[in-house]
Structures are given as structure tokens and as C-alpha cells.
Design goal:
Layout: E1 20-21, E2 30-32, E3 37-42, E4 48-53, E5 56-61, E6 67-72, E7 78-87, E8 90-107, H1 109-112, H2 121-126, E9 130-137, E10 157-159, H3 161-164, H4 169-182, E11 186-192, H5 204-224, H6 226-245, E12 263-264, E13 285-294, H7 296-300, E14 303-311, E15 313-318, E16 321-327, E17 332-337, E18 345-354, E19 361-363, E20 370-373, E21 378-380, E22 386-389, H8 410-416, E23 426-430, H9 441-456, E24 463-466, H10 482-495, E25 500-503, H11 519-533, E26 546-552, E27 555-560, E28 565-566, E29 575-578, E30 586-587, E31 590-593, E32 596-600, E33 608-611, E34 621-622, E35 632-635
Parallel strand pairs: 2-8, 8-11, 8-23, 9-11, 23-24, 24-25
Antiparallel strand pairs: 1-3, 3-6, 4-5, 4-7, 7-8, 9-10, 12-22, 13-18, 13-22, 14-17, 14-19, 14-20, 15-16, 15-18, 20-21, 26-27, 27-32, 28-34, 29-30, 29-33, 31-32, 33-35
Helix pairs in contact: 4-11, 5-6, 5-9, 9-10
């Protein structure tokens, strides 16, 4: 009802304010059964309140910031109930509250992937109608410090075609099945954001403990003094360029752009739309340049540079000076230019543009590119651009840790911290693409799980973790794979935690699409893992886990914790024996027997075993319920 919906500034208490109920307890909310319930909200600072829920009434008092919490004992599944908070200055209420199970679903784009885009999306959306299945979509909100409220209005909604179409498909398919299986109301919270790294989803202490101290320090500095931090980051960025390119100070493209080879930019659109085969599937970086003249009057004015949206990351220089950078494909770039930066006569604008996947470059109407002067006049700058392609070996630059996608702690601050101490049945986590190539994901995963369990007050909170789906080209020969290495670290992180399980979807991927649409199968496997881990139900099962590898009677044996089966024939595909070096890996014949992979030795040195070690491996080793064994690497036990 009216008092249950909160938006910006909701926790700014005042001496006299009507009570509000936090959106986690708004109309149609689901409260976790079997756990104490901490209903919360805001009122006037110091106000005393009477809060009732499910036939029980307790007292609460707002603190100096106007926040109050009312503690209730655990309840069995049931409802609908009403929450009512009364104070001298008014009352607030939420209706149709159910007690059941609450699942938090989080991660990057494959978790955010909406129901409407899944296989048979139109049919799935049209059938999404269940009053006992409740959905809450957390808005994108990156913050430099932990927040107690969301950045915009949020509320629970019963599942309907309208509420479900943009909700996480993987999450929806999981909770729909759990609702059917257990016959209680299910609440699903979708807090996900595409393109984000796991460091974005943990607090400062956890980020520091897992290699993120320099970025945490930059975020803290930026919080206190953005301008000084931009200057400090500029030097880090420039040092990266000089180290990778060999340029000396003063010879970088933003100072000496004529050293590069320039080509006319066909259009100020995504480069995949240029009609140039070289850019049809180009993921990488270019320099873009525009030279323009200004009158003395224009140069004397303060100005804002408008570049429209740039996919994905830009770092922009005007007359050799950095003026801004942004990592977000859909955010317009509007950079203030300090007085004195612009010249009467020739000026040069140089933009580093990085595309990490999908579309790349400038997009939107060319008319959006302009200089806006303090006197209200404008100068169009949409024509005359040139580009120069950067060598791929230069790699990815340092990215600003306070920005949307590469941000460290920023999404935890804005999208997890505001959930408060809400009770959960479990967490479904689908993320990792943004961490490919960064070692020790298992450590970061463990740190993130500790932070979330601490916040929610549930030390045994279950996590079902989706491994990356295959993406790329099938291998013809053994070779390195950062993709497989990330999945292996996801496996290690889950195996090391008694309350976590990996959900292998290596066989669900698409060679040319990082977002496979078969989220029904992802949801099915999430459901099986949730049944096993969170419900301890016999219906649940997880994929076979490799336990160890050792020599035995002229063979190498990999043991699993449960039986494995080879699909499509007697030989297991993608098994490698490796020595101490990367180039020492070679394919080897292998078969399955009960809970073992049996590999024939070939007379060459062996210190490691690898399985399905590729970006897009062809796999045929499965456990029960058609669950594939994930890629793994194991050293031989002595």
C-alpha cells in the first residue's frame, strides 16, 4: 500500500515524519519461512512505533537517522498477511504478504538475461502467471559507499506476463520449478548487471583481501576528491600506454597523434554498421580523432563536450589533456572542459574507444556530438572524424574502479547492501565472464560469499553457482584456455565450501553468442542443485565432482564422487595428459567405469590431467540427470 513503497532519500529521517515500510516488505512481498523476520522502515528520528505482522505486535523505535527495525519470531509457510506500522505521525501498511522461500539471484549478463529473450520467449512470457510466485527487480545502482536504500522506486510484483518479461530468465525458471515442487510461495530477487566483475559485488574489506587494495584506495580517494583522483588515475593510464606501446612521454597519441595512420570514419555509428568486413566482428580498441577550429569568443567560453554514447569504454583527451572516461555502453559522454583548455583556432579531440564484445564505437545520432558553450551557443562536431586501429597486443588498459562496470565494491554498495538483513533460502550466482583471464577467482568467490552471509546473518546460506557456458570455437588441438581456467576456479571455489555447489552448463553454450538463450536448461540444473543443497531433497543432484588423479597399474585414474557415463560411445572426448609445460599437453584415450575416468598412459611425462580444456569444448562425460562434468585440471597425487 501507499506507505510501503520507498525511493530515493527514504532513510533521511526527520523530527516528524510518517512511518514508511522498507520495499523488501512492500505489498506482495515474500518473507522467508523458518527464520526470524526483521521488518524495517523509517519514521521520524526517535519515534516510537507499534508494528504488527501475522497476528503478532511488537514495539520499535527509530534511531537518529530515522531507521527502525521490528523483530518477529520465525513463521511457517502461509499467508496472506498484513504488515502495519503505527506512530504518532501516521501509519503505513503492506498487504498480501506471504511466508515462503526467498531466493536472491545475482551476477552479470547471463543472469540478467530476460525471460522475453529466452528460447520460446513469447510463449514463456504469456504463460507467466502465478499469484504465489513473487518477483522483485533491483534497479541498476552503483554507489561509492554502502547504501541503506535503493536508488529508485522498487516493489514486489506477483508473476504476470508484464512483471516477468524483463526478469532474469534463469532465475525465473528455477523459482518456478521450486514453487511447483514445494508448494509454498516463492519470492525471487533479481539483482544483476551485465558486464560486471566479481570485485564489484563485495565490500571493501573483501576486495582488499583478494588483491583489490589499489582500486579500493582509488575509490576512497574518488569519494573524497574526484578531481584529484582523476589526475592520479590519468598517470596510471598513461604509464600503461607507454609500457605497452613503447612511446615516450610526450609522444603518446593524445600529444602526437600524427604518428598514427588515420582513416576517414565512415559514419558516427557502431563500427559493425560501417559495412567494412574488418569491423564486422571487431572487438578491440581504436583511436578516434577530430580536429576543429574555434573563434576567440568560443574558446573563451566555458564548455561541455557531448559525445553521445560510446560502446563500451572511452578515455577522452582535448588538446592533450584527459577530460573524462566512462565504462558503460549506453551512457552519454558529457565532459566539462575547464576554462583555458580550448584554443582560438585549431583544436584536437582524441578518444580512445574500447569494445569488449558485441557492438563497438560511437552510436546515436551524429547531431548529439557537439560543444555546448556557457552562453547557450553550440558547435556541432559530428563530421570529419578519423580513426586508427590499435594493435591487439597492447591489450586492455586499466579501468576506473569507481565506474559502472569495472567498479570495485560499487554494486555491492548499491544493489546488495540495501537488501539489509533479509532472510533468504539461498543465492543463485551466475557471473564470471568479466573475470576471465584474472587468476584466483576461487578466492574472490569465497570472499564474496563470506560478505553476503555476514550481511544476511546466515553463515550456512547456500550458493548455487553457474559455471560459464561454452563460447568460441571447438578445439582441434590442446591449448591454453582462460575460459576453462575460470570454470575450473569456479569449481574449486564451490568444492571448498560445504554450502556451495557448481552448476555446470558448459554444454549449453553457443559458439558465437556469449548469451545462450536456452535458459530453461540452466534453470533446470539450478533447480536440481537448489533441491540438493538448500532443501536436502532426494530430488536434488549436482554434477559429478573430480576428487583426485593418480597412477594405478599402467593407467591414470581420476576419481569422481558419483558415477559418470559417456554419451555417444565408449571414449571420453577432450581428455589431456600434460607435463610441466603448456605445450606438453596432448589428447589421450580415456574411458569411464563407475566413478572413474581411466586414462591410458603414453610413455611421456605426466604431471597433470585436463578435461574439456577449451573455450568451447565438445563434451560427452555426464552424471545423472544429464549433468555434464565441468572442465577441470588436476595434478597427479603422489
Amino acid at each position: 500500500m501507499r506507505g510501503a513503497l520507498l525511493g530515493l532519500g527514504v532513510f533521511a529521517g526527520s523530527a516528524a515524519a510518517a512511518p514508511h515500510i522498507d520495499p523488501m516488505f512492500s505489498d506482495h512481498a515474500v518473507v522467508q519461512r523458518g527464520l526470524p523476520v526483521a521488518v524495517r522502515g523509517t519514521a521520524g528520528a526517535g519515534d516510537r512505533l507499534t508494528v504488527s505482522f501475522a497476528g503478532r505486535t511488537v514495539s520499535a523505535r527509530a534511531d537518529k537517522q530515522g531507521r527502525w527495525v521490528a523483530q518477529f519470531k520465525s513463521l511457517e509457510a502461509g499467508g496472506p498477511y498484513r504488515i502495519e506500522a503505527r506512530a504518532l505521525d501516521g501509519a503505513a501498511a503492506s498487504d498480501d504478504i506471504m511466508v515462503g522461500d526467498v531466493w536472491l539471484c545475482s551476477g552479470q549478463s547471463n543472469m540478467e538475461f530476460p525471460l522475453k529473450n529466452a528460447l520460446n520467449g513469447e510463449g514463456e512470457v504469456s504463460g507467466a502467471s502465478d499469484p504465489q510466485l513473487r518477483l522483485l527487480k533491483v534497479p541498476h545502482n552503483d554507489q561509492l559507499a554502502p547504501q541503506t536504500s535503493f536508488g529508485s522506486l522498487v516493489s514486489w510484483k506477483a508473476a504476470t506476463p508484464e512483471s516477468a518479461k524483463d526478469f532474469s530468465a534463469a532465475c525465473y525458471f528455477m523459482v518456478r520449478a521450486l514453487k511447483q515442487s514445494h508448494g509454498v510461495a516463492i519470492g525471487a530477487v533479481d539483482s544483476s548487471w551485465g558486464g560486471t566483475a566479481i570485485h564489484s559485488w563485495m565490500d571493501e574489506a573483501a576486495a582488499r583481501a583478494t588483491g583489490g587494495s589499489p582500486d579500493v584506495e582509488l575509490v576512497k580517494q574518488y569519494r573524497a576528491n574526484p578531481e584529484a583522483t582523476l589526475t592520479a588515475f590519468s598517470e596510471r593510464w598513461a604509464n600503461w600506454w607507454r609500457e605497452r606501446s613503447g612511446d615516450k612521454r610526450g609522444f603518446e597519441p593524445w600529444h602526437a597523434s600524427d604518428r598514427l595512420q588515420w582513416h576517414r570514419m565512415p559514419a558516427m555509428t557502431l563500427w559493425e554498421q560501417w559495412g567494412d568486413p574488418a569491423f564486422a566482428d571487431f572487438n578491440g580498441a581504436i583511436w578516434a580523432r577530430l580536429r576543429f577550429d574555434l573563434t576567440p569568443g568560443q574558446a573563451a567560453e566555458g564548455a561541455v563536450l557531448h559525445l553521445g554514447a560510446i560502446d563500451d569504454f572511452d578515455r577522452t583527451f582535448v588538446n592533450g589533456e584527459p577530460v573524462g572516461q566512462t565504462f558503460r555502453y549506453d551512457k552519454p559522454r558529457d565532459y566539462a572542459l575547464r576554462p583555458g583548455l580550448l584554443n582560438a583556432g585549431p583544436n584536437e579531440l582524441v578518444v580512445y574507444v574500447l569494445d569488449t564484445g558485441g557492438g563497438g564505437g560511437f552510436w546515436g545520432a551524429p547531431g548529439r556530438l557537439k560543444l555546448s558553450f556557457a552562453n547557450g551557443n553550440e558547435k556541432p562536431i559530428g563530421d570529419g572524424w578519423e580513426y586508427s586501429v590499435m594493435p591487439t597486443e597492447i591489450g586492455i588498459p586499466p579501468l576506473p574502479p569507481w565506474d559502472q562496470y569495472p567498479g570495485v565494491t560499487t554494486l555491492y554498495n548499491g544493489m546488495i547492501a540495501p537488501l539489509g538483513r533479509v532472510g533468504l533460502k539461498g543465492v543463485a550466482w551466475y557471473q564470471g565472464e568479466a573475470d576471465v583471464g584474472k587468476a584466483h577467482y576461487d578466492q574472490r568467490l569465497a570472499a564474496m560469499m563470506r560478505v553476503w552471509r555476514s550481511q544476511f546473518g546466515q553463515p550456512d546460506l547456500p550458493f548455487v553457482i553457474v559455471g560459464l557456458a561454452g563460447y568460441g570455437q571447438p578445439p582441434a588441438q590442446p591449448g591454453p584456455s582462460s575460459w576453462a581456467a575460470l570454470i575450473d576456479e569456479q569449481r574449486k571455489g564451490a568444492d571448498a565450501d560445504p554450502h556451495a555447489a557448481l552448476v555446470s552448463v558448459i554444454d549449453v553454450g553457443e559458439r558465437n553468442d556469449i548469451h545462450p538463450p536456452n535458459k530453461q536448461e540452466v534453470g533446470r540444473r539450478l533447480t536440481l542443485a537448489a533441491e540438493a543443497l538448500a532443501y536436502r531433497d532426494s530430488k536434488g543432484v549436482t554434477e559429478p565432482r573430480p576428487l583426485d588423479a593418480r597412477r594405478s597399474g599402467g593407467s591414470i585414474i581420476v576419481r569422481f564422487d558419483r558415477p559418470v557415463t559417456v554419451y555417444g560411445g565408449g571414449s571420453i572426448l577432450g581428455v589431456e595428459l600434460c607435463g610441466d609445460t603448456q605445450v606438453s599437453c596432448r589428447y589421450s584415450a580415456a574411458r569411464a567405469s563407475a566413478q572413474q575416468m581411466i586414462i591410458a598412459e603414453d610413455g611421456q611425462p605426466v604431471t597433470r590431467v585436463r578435461y574439456a580444456w577449451a573455450d568451447y569444448p565438445i563434451v560427452n562425460l555426464y552424471g545423472s540427470e544429464r549433468l555434464p562434468v565441468p572442465p577441470f585440471e588436476m595434478s597427479l597425487s603422489r
